[in-house]
Amino acid sequence: MPALYRFHPPALMVLFADLASHARGQSKVFVGTAGSVLERSNADGFRFYAHQFYDGDGKKRERYVAGPIGAPEPDATARALRLAVAETKAATTSLRLLGREGFALVDAKTYATLASLYNHGVFQAGGVLIGSHAYGLLLNQMGVAGAPYATEDIDIARREKLAFPALPEASFLEMLQATGIAFVEVPQLDARQPATSFKERGRSRFHVDLLVPAAGDNFQVVPVPELRAHATALPYLSYLLADSQMSLLLAREGCCMVRVPLPERFALHKLMVSQLRADRGGKSEKDLFQAAVLLAVLGDRHPGAIDDALRWAPLSILGRLKSAVRLLRQLLASDHPRAWDELNPE
User: Fold this and answer.
1) For residue range 197-234, what is the model confidence (pLDDT) as tens digits?
2) Residues 51/81, Cβ–Cβ less than 8 Å
3) What 3-state DSSP class applies to 240?
4) Residues ≥6 apart with Cβ < 8 Å to 61
5) How many whole angstroms separate alpha carbon 140 and alpha carbon 14?
6) pTM of the full structure
7) What pLDDT, in 10s, does the model give residues 264-304?
8) Which run of H or E residues covers position 78?
9) How far apart are CA 192 and CA 209, in angstroms?
């Protein structure tokens, strides 16, 4: 059986740690490419600084920065922007190397979307990235490479009211549109219900879902007033969101810190979800495989983490959780016995 994962060399993990340190020092990141700072003049001869870059939709943009050129404050603003551009471009060399060596990098649209949410303070306030993109971040953080994954979904969740220092001026939709991507609300089947999903206009399948925990087993639409939006409430999501951490998001355009769940809770939640899906097709298989990879690493490198996460699993799901665990026997029992033993205590 092919190995579920492989460890990255220590030298690459040192590089990853350096990038994480760089990202933690960023109060704002570029939404798109770093671009360049240019000097421009208008028809009246007014000379000013402009920032030229490619946005999240791949369109070339140019925005006014400051002027006039030669005045102390505009010159200082331009110097600070040039320094940020240079630092980001220096980091992209390392990002390309990590991508070639098997680290999970997100595509340009995903990076722009998550970078915009970072700039608006969503992750700092408690918003959590879940789903397959979070799986990729967790693999990177644990120092392993797994099978590639593909998704056009971005799932953003919040456990409780986001703790913004001050309420953001932009709504959730406006934060998404700040990428340059033409996001629109996705109408519900029941037209009386407000949207909880946002997609790129047209035939694109690229979309963002806003999620919160459900009080019971029913799917509901819940207001998220601090984002001037609504979210879909999902069962057992509170278990996933109970503990979270900031982790490094990598892309060829740049990097930033994003909040994700703990890997052990993420893995067990994937097992739960695999059994709750009405259609036990490809998505359930993906859930099971991603859970198996994380559980294998945890068992091999972090003994006790799985056992601890199991103790907090909702009693109402334990039966289905055990059913899902049985499906992992072929993936774990022989090659990753520690993980298998923790999942099946005597």
Assistant:
1) 999 999 999 999 999 999 876 778 999 999 999 999 99
2) yes
3) helix
4) 32, 52, 53, 54, 55, 180
5) 12
6) 0.94
7) 999 999 998 888 765 555 678 889 999 999 999 999 999 99
8) helix 72-100
9) 18
